[in-house]
Amino acid sequence: MSIKRHLTVSANGGTDLSRVNLEEAFAMIGLTDIDQTKLPSIEVCRQKVRAGQPLFGQGDPFDSIFVVRLGTFKSTALDDGGYEQVLGFALRADILGCDAAASGTHASCCVALEDSEAITIPLAPFRDLGEVGNVFERHLFRHLSEELNRQNRVLAMIGTLGANARVARFLVSLSERYARMGYSPKHFILRMTRQEIANHLGLTMETVSRAFSHLCQANLIEVNQRAVTVFCVDRLRCVRPATQSNHQRQTMPYRFASVPIMSSM
Q1: Looking at the chain, which terminus has fewer C-beta neighbours within 10 angstroms, N or C?
Q2: Burial readout 183-201 (b: 16 or more C-beta within 10 A, e: otherwise)
Q3: Backbone angles phi and psi of 258, in degrees to 5
Q4: CA of 192: how far to CAs of 17, 217, 227, in Å?
Q5: Phi, psi for residue 60 in degrees, rounded to 5
Q6: Which DSSP category does 63 fall into?
Q7: Nearest-angstrom CA–CA distance, 13 and 63
Q8: What is the CA radius of gyration of the chain?
Q9: Strands across the sheet with 187-189, in order?
Q10: Cα(248)–Cα(156) distance, rounded to whole angstroms?
Q11: Cα 138 to the chain's mean position, in Å?
């Protein structure tokens, strides 16, 4: 996304801009095996994206990748029938936008779930940088591989687990991700709605609500509106399909399996 396009977004009240060092973005995504002295002199933008506003849209051209600096984003995609699928949720240090690498346009839309920030890294300056560009490219490929593995696990879960187990695994994943960011793995806020969780897990909102109630009754979690307390991550991880009743296994069809190139679950 070019600077000009950023400024256009900013003008409509959705995004504010400031400059940031490229080193900060690389450090966030763990790209430390690169010669800092050989980095290109490019303008890297830190965007402040307000809740409900898009970072990029489905069909936008691919000229940058994005690193979440603060906040939470969701990735969604529309199929040919107009059905919107929630593909995943991105937290701090997650990479967004690589879904466009094959076609040259973004296959998904990325929207802030709260007031958030993302660092935009333009790709053009890296194409003729020799070894530096190769290291950067290998890091993105590693990210793509991790995402494919993560999405395969999500699809396997949807195909084999009941509602209680799906919601439990979703909460375990969030707990682990918050722990990696240095936050509490046992106390966190759900920035996404029950409907968004249901859509992502291939369930109905009512089924997700029942699953939350079941996990609370089993003394695995405590929920106060969007605040969640996980009493024991290991016990939550061990919730199995056998614990599900028929009505708790009610699901929605998972319309398509687009791979959001972002950390999800």
Answers
A1: C
A2: eebeebebbbebebbbbbb
A3: -65, 140
A4: 25, 22, 11
A5: -65, 150
A6: -
A7: 23
A8: 19
A9: 187-189, 227-230, 221-224
A10: 18
A11: 21
Q: SS3 sequence, 199-261?
A: HHHCECHHHHHHHHHHHHHCCCEEEECCEEEECCHHHHHCCCHHHCCCHHHCECCCCCCCCCC
Q: What are the tokens at 254?
A: 């998972």
Residue 37: other Cβ atoms inside 10 A: 6
Per-residue confidence in pLDDT tens, the chain, 265 aa:
333 333 333 333 455 566 667 777 777 777 666 666 666 666 678 889 999 999 999 999 988 889 999 999 999 998 888 889 999 999 998 989 887 777 889 989 999 999 999 998 887 766 665 655 666 676 676 666 666 777 677 777 777 889 999 999 999 999 999 999 899 999 999 999 999 999 999 999 999 999 999 999 999 999 999 999 999 999 999 997 643 444 444 445 444 334 343 444 5
Q: How far apart are CA 66 and CA 146, in angstroms?
A: 17
Can you tell me the distance from the alpha carbon of 119 to that of 96, in angstroms, rounded to the nearest whole number? 10
Distance of CA 80 to the CA centre of its chain: 23
C-beta neighbour count of 258 within 10 angstroms? 17
Question: Which residue, chain included where needed, has tokens 């939350």?
Answer: 212
**CA distances, 23 to each of 40, 49, 120 (Å):** 11, 21, 12
β-bridge partners, 47: 17, 118
Q: 85-123: string of b/e by CB count within 10 Å (b at 16+)?
A: bbbbbbbbbbbbbbbbeeeeebbbbbbbbeebbbbbbbb
**Which tokens hold the place of 32?**
């430390």
